[in-house]
Known about the structure:
Elements: E1 11-17, E2 26-32, E3 40-50, H1 52-59, E4 72-73, E5 77-85, E6 97-101, E7 113-117, E8 121-123, H2 130-134, H3 137-150, E9 158-162, H4 167-178, E10 182-187, H5 192-198, E11 202-205, E12 219-224, H6 230-233, E13 238-246, H7 253-258, E14 262-265, H8 272-284, E15 291-296, H9 300-308, E16 315-319, H10 331-335
Parallel strand pairs: 9-10, 9-12, 10-11, 12-13, 13-14, 15-16
Antiparallel strand pairs: 1-2, 1-4, 3-5, 3-7, 3-16, 5-6, 6-8
Helix pairs in contact: 3-4
Amino acid sequence: MSVFESEGQPMMRAVVMRGHGGPQALHYEQLPVPAVSAGQVLVRVHGAGVNPVDWKIRDGFGYPWLDRPDPGILGFDLSGIVQAVGPEVRRFTVGQSVYGCTSLRRNGAYAEYVVVPESELAHKPASIDFVDAAAVPTVGLTAWRGLFDLAHLAAGQRVLVHGAAGGVGSMAVQLAKWAGAHVTGVASGRNEQYCRGLGADDYIDYTAVAFEEAGYRDFDVVIDTIGGDYKIRSLAVLKKGGILVAMIDPLKHEIAEKHGVRTGMVKVHPDGSRLEKITQLIEQGALKVHVQAVLPLSQFAQAHELSQSGRTRGKIVLVPDALWQPPIMSEQAVRA
Length: 336
């Protein structure tokens, strides 16, 4: 089953969550490499994407109903190489490059190895590296479900994306544009060119003007990655019969009905088959990935701090220390 069985008890480095709280609840430890069972794949992790849900769970989100392992391992986006497969695995073989989004209820990828059900993995796009691949699954699947499963987006419709420079927002802009929609992005002024480069037709700098006062109206779809009062304020720009898709904080259905609009909230489930469709779009050049920071796994606290700042453009990825290489700096940067 595993290449390690004849080598005794193989060990790995991992970030273990013991209890809840700040980064002090996480510990960089040595653990046994997990064994594969039927239908499972052992992946040697080359990249673990950092998502807000990671530090929210660390702080206590979902306790106790989420029923996670305690102690447990965070990190639900991953890329890597298949190290071993269990019985009944058909789609993957040892040595293949894969990526995926795992269940929040199981141990994740803040580790050198992770066991993942075959159904949650897809073949890694050949056109991007492991770091970029680790940044895709959760945000890609979230944006896809919001636009197509909930909003049923069609060509020619108008879409407003709140948080257009973030992980989910940047994917939503690109997917909506690929589907033939007219896209308006909302983010800070410093991100305008970035968002227009992703495909945004119009742009609202929320630091200069309230989005509902910027003169844009009659949107078929509003993608809300921010929450708070954005959901109520978004009612002013939605057309009758339009839909507000929430990623964090859903609008109450009775309020939506009162205003003649629809609402829904995205619940992301691991889905390898749908991720294969996203792989195709990446290979076609329809989707680009932006990673703001790449850090060694042992610097998980810094990664969480960056994510919690709410000012990241794109994604943050952790790489196991044994595989991590510091970025190459230009001679000019070194002198500076």
